[in-house]
Structure formats: C-alpha cells, structure tokens
Amino acid sequence: MTAKEQYKMFHWGKDPRRKTRRKVKLPKSGESVFQLGLLTSVTYRTKKGRDKEQIDYVHDFGRPYPRLAATKSGQLLIIGGKFKIKPEGITG
Predict the structure, then answer these.
(1) What does pTM read for this prediction?
(2) What is the DSSP letter of 17?
(3) Residue 9: phi, psi to the nearest 5?
(4) For residue range 56-70, what is the model confidence (pLDDT) as tens digits?
(5) DSSP one-letter code for 48
(6) C-alpha angle 88/82/39, rounded to 5°?
C-alpha cells in the first residue's frame, strides 16, 4: 500500500492535498534510546473524512501503557503497549 493510500484510509477517505514537505528521519539502528515515562494518552490534530476544520483527537491508553522514549537527537518514540492503529483511530 502506498503512503497516499494509507493516508486516505486513516483519514476516512480524505485525499492528501500536498506532498509531505520534509522527510522524517528514522532513528538509526542501534541508536541509544532513553525512557521518559509511561504514555497514558495522546492528542493529535488533523482533518478526517467530513471534518470542516482540524480537530483534536484524544486517545487514552489502557494497560499495559506504552512507554514514551526519546533518542539522543530528541526524536520521540512510542514503545510497547497494547494498542493498534486502525482506520477508525487508535484502539486499545
């Protein structure tokens, strides 16, 4: 599945209006990571489906909670937990 197809599926049919402006660099294999703590919830802002404007979507995680970690360069990572990313949103 292409990135465009995944975007459309996870935004309830909404087409991306433009290409990503900057590339996201993934952590290098073996890069050290340190834990910041347990992640109990996350809020993200986007437009999905028939949304007229950007909306804050909030998800409270259940146990076992994922861990929020960071790389030396400051990139945040979500590690572990028992959740899934589905077209209807974050579940679990």
Answers:
(1) 0.68
(2) S
(3) -65, -45
(4) 999 999 999 999 999
(5) -
(6) 90
